[in-house]
Design a protein that fits this description.
Length: 159
Amino acid sequence: MNFYDFFIFITRFVLANVIELYHVQKPEDAKVNSPEATHHYVYNLMQIREVASKMISAEAFSIENLCVISEGNRSAMSDVTKILKDDGFRRLWMTLSEAYECIRRGQRILYKVRYLNQKGCLSVTCLKSYCNVVDRITFFMRVIRGPEDLVRLIDTALP
């Protein structure tokens, strides 16, 4: 794993945490409104923010170096809509959601694979009329070009 691969991973981890945080903070969804879950997501985001802040000065993210990275890496780490539609992102998001569901249920193992999250919103397009999380994310940040953008996204998402 190189530096860009790591950045691609933490970008996806941030997006998954932002989506989960959005869902636990929805007042109309009291069933999943959990201070413990909120704490986990906020803690994750704050820790990644700290790492991303340190990455800002890394030479790998200088304009010169970003211009020469492969198109695959550039698009993998930049286009938020593309990331949110990616099957790999869906699997990461579902796994994160299931892990925190286990924590919320007192460490009991989930035997049933869940295809839907928080009232069916795991469909990445979030077409349900009551859910606009993807629109909210892409409204604030359409492209993540480097650590500065990731820090801004986290700052926007944190309560």
